[in-house]
Specification:
Elements lengths: L2 E8 L28 H5 L6 E9 L2 E6 L24 E6 L9 E2 L6 E3 L4 E2 L33 E3 L5 E3 L4 H4 L10 E5 L4 E3 L2 E3 L9 E3 L4 E3 L20 E3 L11 E6 L2 E9 L10 E2 L40 H5 L9 E6 L2 E10 L2 E6 L3
């Protein structure tokens, strides 16, 4: 039996505190102050505040269909750091209902890490690099990279295709809840594990323990960069940071195992923090291919390009590799083993082969 939950967010003018889309958002770029939209701003805007998300559970998966429009006030787009307007998307995400950990973490590359409960993607990486060289691997950080990328007070901005997405804590969601008093579920990662805000139990296994701000275990490296841009490590680039086991409360994927209001028996869950990495940069499980970017993908569009003339990375899996489903299909198998991949068009059979540096399920030729 299909367990269906259909959620439709429609916000009307019931008080002076109404939520709106970014075309007429009220926050300045990266402003510290936030205020609600007033009656006048609502009446004189040409866009109706409406966001839609549909969640279905079937066949061991949670299916999330979304238009990608935020259900909270956003910044004003376009702006001086981001020339794009927010547009409705056609997202079709899929995550397992019973996620499993891999033997080792998997980098998300430039895929979307996950999706918030309002259907807006968590998408931490940028398309900005040292010397504009994507092959350099010196990826500039959205919040600490020193560039004005037009982020609003929910730590979000817009891709060239109009996709609004978060780079850190989605404050527009959190400010509606008492998030400093309990762990707050704010979304799901591409591997199916839940995503929570940055306050949690001091003892991960004890729901009666003190609520504290959870800290990541990353820090800026000491010394100077040996290549690329050179200079002292200062947090400009993703590679400026290092993971130190036990430094904070969370593991290398910014997660931990513990109880939450939704999981009284305990679960592994991710945390979005206010310090690096903000949104996790790796999955403990296997991220679903619906979160990959590129032509034909069901997830977010290209990277955080500052103009339409800049191209996004190649389609496929993280960092332009093969789809995640093709990688998962050959996990713990040998070269030449039979494999199959579930796609939106049905099951595809193939053979496990090493292609470049990836061990993947290669489709049989027809």
């Amino acid at each position: 039996m299909k367990n269906r939950m259909h959620i439709l967010f429609c916000f009307s003018l019931l008080s002076t505190y109404v939520f709106a889309h970014g075309e007429y958002g009220t926050e300045d770029i990266q402003a510290d102050e936030k205020r609600p939209i007033t009656f006048l701003e609502y009446f004189f805007s040409s866009v109706t505040a409406k966001a839609s998300i549909r969640i279905d559970e079937q066949g061991g998966y949670r299916y999330i269909e979304s238009d990608g429009l935020a259900d909270h006030a956003t910044g004003r787009f376009p702006n001086s750091g981001n020339p794009h307007s927010i547009k409705a998307q056609d997202y079709n995400f899929r995550v397992p209902l019973k996620p499993r950990k891999r033997s080792s973490p998997m980098s998300i590359g430039h895929a979307a890490f996950g999706v918030a409960i309002n259907g807006v993607p968590f998408d931490p990486a940028t398309a900005e690099y040292w010397n504009n060289d994507r092959s350099s691997d010196w990826n500039i950080e959205a919040l600490t990279g020193g560039l004005n990328l037009g982020l609003d007070s929910s730590n979000a901005h817009v891709q060239p295709n109009g996709a609004y997405h978060y780079h850190s804590l989605p404050l527009g969601i959190l400010n509606r809840s008492n998030y400093k008093s309990k762990p707050v579920l704010i979304g799901y990662a591409a591997d199916g594990f839940p995503v929570y805000s940055h306050y949690g139990y001091s003892d991960a296994a004890d729901p009666n323990s003190e609520i504290v701000k959870l800290r990541s275990s990353y820090r800026v490296k000491s010394g100077s960069r040996s290549g690329g841009p050179g200079g002292t490590y200062d947090g400009t680039y993703s590679k400026d940071y290092e993971y130190v086991d036990g430094l904070g409360d969370l593991d290398q994927c910014n997660g931990r195992t513990g109880v939450t209001p939704e999981h009284s028996e305990g679960t592994y869950y991710y945390v979005i923090t206010d310090g690096f990495p903000m949104i996790p940069r790796c999955w403990k499980g296997s991220g679903d291919s619906s979160f990959q970017k590129g032509p034909g993908a069901n997830g977010p569009g290209g990277g955080d390009r500052r103009s339409q003339n800049q191209r996004s990375g190649p389609p496929g899996g993280p960092s332009g590799g093969p789809p995640q489903e093709a990688l998962n299909a050959c996990e713990n198998k040998r070269e030449g083993s039979s494999c199959s991949v579930n796609t939106p068009r049905g099951s595809m059979r193939g053979t496990c082969r090493t292609m470049r540096s990836d061990f993947v399920c290669v489709p049989q030729r027809r």
